[in-house]
Design a protein that fits this description.
Number of helices: 2
Helix content: 55-70%
Distance between the termini: 15 Å
Largest sheet: none
Strand content: under 5%
Structural class: mainly alpha
Order of helices and strands: HH
Length: 50
């Protein structure tokens, strides 16, 4: 999922708005990056996951 996020961000940065990833203050790109990293890390704790 994180790789998909980087692909989407890269395309968006090239074709659309060139807003950088910021964490102080957190912008939309930083928030979504933190979310996908958290989901990737939490996936191993989900019951029934492979």
């Amino acid at each position: 999922m994180t790789l998909v996020w980087f692909f989407v961000w890269g395309i968006w940065s090239l074709a659309g708005d060139s807003e950088p990833i910021r964490f102080d203050p957190v912008n939309v790109w930083g928030t979504t990056l933190l979310l996908v990293v958290a989901l990737d890390l939490a996936r191993q704790h989900a019951p029934g996951g492979k």
